[in-house]
TrEMBL record:
Keywords: Cell wall biogenesis/degradation, Glycosyltransferase, Golgi apparatus, Membrane, Transferase, Transmembrane, Transmembrane helix
Compartments where located: Golgi apparatus membrane
Domain Glycosyltransferase 2-like: 113-235
Main localization (coarse): Golgi
Catalyzed reaction equations: GDP-mannose + (glucomannan)n = GDP + (glucomannan)n+1
Organism of this sequence: Aegilops tauschii subsp. strangulata
Stored Gene3D superfamilies: Spore Coat Polysaccharide Biosynthesis Protein SpsA, Chain A
Coiled-coil intervals, chain numbering: none
GO biological process: cell wall organization
One Gene Ontology term of the molecular function aspect: glucomannan 4-beta-mannosyltransferase activity
Function field: Probable mannan synthase which consists of a 4-beta-mannosyltransferase activity on mannan using GDP-mannose. The beta-1,4-mannan product is the backbone for galactomannan synthesis by galactomannan galactosyltransferase. Galactomannan is a noncellulosic polysaccharides of plant cell wall.
EC number per UniProt: 2.4.1.32
This protein's name: glucomannan 4-beta-mannosyltransferase
């Protein structure tokens, strides 16, 4: 419970680095030279080794990143050189039967989820692209999961969904009381709906994604003909528009 004197503390540290616990210099006071000497010893025996270990660790991780980047480049160039396509490894055949516009029970039910959060600039484009997917209208459900906090944007998104519903699209507009889990939480909540449980496959597009009309026709057959396939991810492309 006694007070530790500064001079005694410095002397004790010097004694530790000297290999002894002597505090004989405490009575005579501590000079700036002794403090600097202590700092040099701490820096050389504690800080420098720790920094050296950190530098080596960073170098190892840098090498790992370079190796990974080179590997990805080689694989990408190899795929382009041989013209590899997923169909080489997985069976793919177009879904047989009636025209998709006429409907058909042989087409599996698909749920298209679009999570949104104040997406004023892109909500029309993403909803429109999802509603224009080539698939029997009685075998697809478009689910717009709106977590928007702006009432104005929320109203616009709901009106857009209603406009597509009038055109005969099976589109559902869903909101929730909290943003728990953010967009991932919205997707999970959307799967709890009764109509979602009737769907065999789920397609997820972020609010700024615009899938090509034949997206489902090109991807769903991988699931139908390959029971071991659980996920299909398509290539992204970017378009720059100027007004």
């Amino acid at each position: 419970g006694g007070r530790v004197d500064f001079q005694e503390a410095i002397s004790w540290f010097i004694g530790v680095f000297d290999g002894s616990s002597s505090s004989s210099s405490a009575a005579g006071g501590v000079s700036l030279a002794e403090v600097y000497e202590l700092w040099v010893r701490v820096r050389g025996r504690v800080i420098a080794p720790a920094l050296q270990v950190a530098v080596w660790a960073c170098m190892v991780m840098s090498v790992m990143l370079v190796v990974e980047a080179l590997y990805n480049c080689v694989v990408s160039l190899g795929v382009k050189a041989v013209g590899w396509r997923p169909e080489w490894r997985f069976k793919w055949e177009p879904l047989a039967g009636d025209d998709e516009e006429k409907g058909g029970a042989h087409y599996p039910m698909v749920l298209v989820q679009i999570p949104m959060y104040n997406e004023l600039e892109v909500y029309k484009l993403s909803i429109g692209a999802a509603c224009e997917l080539q698939w029997p209208k009685d075998r697809i459900i478009v689910q717009v999961l709106d977590d928007s906090t702006d009432p104005f944007i929320k109203n616009l998104v709901e009106l857009e969904c209603e406009s597509w519903a009038v055109k005969g699209l099976n589109i559902k507009y869903a909101t929730r009381s909290s943003r728990k889990g953010f967009k991932a939480g919205a997707l999970k909540k959307g799967m709890e709906c009764d109509y979602a449980k009737q769907c065999e496959y789920v397609a997820i597009f972020d609010a700024d994604f615009q899938p090509e009309p034949d997206f489902l026709l090109r991807t769903v057959p991988f699931f139908v003909h390959n029971p071991e396939v659980a996920l299909v991810q398509a290539r992204w492309s970017f378009e720059f528009c100027s007004e």
